[in-house]
Amino acid sequence: MSLKNVRLEVMQFLEKDVEALIKKYLIPIEQIWQPTDFLPNSESDSFFEEVKEIRELSKELPYDFWVVLVGDMITEEALPTYESWLMEVEGVDQVDSKNAWSKWVKHWTGEENRHGDVLNKYLYLSGRVNMREIEKTTQYLISDGFDIGTDRDPYKNFVYTSFQELATYISHNRVAKLAKKNGNKQLGKMCQIISGDEMRHHNAYSEFVERIFKVDPSQMMMAFHDMMKQKITMPAHFLRESGGKISTAFEEFSNTAQRIGVYTSKDYVDILQKLINRWEIDKITNLNDEAEKARDYLMALPNRMYRLADRIKIPENSYQFKWVEPAIAK
Which active-site residues does the annotation give? Predict the structure, then answer.
């Protein structure tokens, strides 16, 4: 049987548990928070006063902070790309209304969609960013699409989402702390609750991988190995500003995130180590020879990567993005 057929068989075997996992990890629409819970009520007489407060508090936040918040928002707004990619994974059938994996993807997408909504509206109200430039970057990111190196392989896709959801948790959580430190408690609370969603989703995708390890350990190990060997491509890797080809925008955005400690190269390695620990890679049994070699590679990888991370030097000066004008950002 081909690897593709084995993966499809495993996904069909695990599908019986997905409904229970939806109840465990996703929150019903009537119960979960919505963007308006954190934004001024446009129907209220106090709306303009609340907007004025947002604009005043926003003046206390520095340039690099706005760059990172914008980059995070754009990443969240590119959700149509992520849903269409996950719908193509082996075992996910969007035509079959009874397919539980398809139901998971749609419900997960609905939860994630709120993140871009609330951040977009906040940025618009803040008066500190160039929304038209941000909107063009978002449209470029969606229309350009991206290749994360997973193809339609569910094993690789679940490694990717396990990693990426934890990365977004770290980023949103640290932005929340920076906002609170600068006196913006409401923005801090907003980013913190977004990070809570990301952690919940990380735990879900990590459990998917754990379940696959139990039924197909060698191929799951190979998928983990392959994803880490080629490195995880961040969703915003193809960020570009208006005016031309894919540029150095992602690199400069990453430098900014590192400079203010929101997401660093060491965080990347920390996530890898957390996944190795969570999935108990050192204890997996019934591996073939190739998978044993893959395990050895994975176990040694964090130390190698920590050494490389220590050598990375981040530019001290901020790159000038079109998203944020220095004259209007402290």
Answer: 33, 76, 112, 115, 165, 168, 197-198, 201
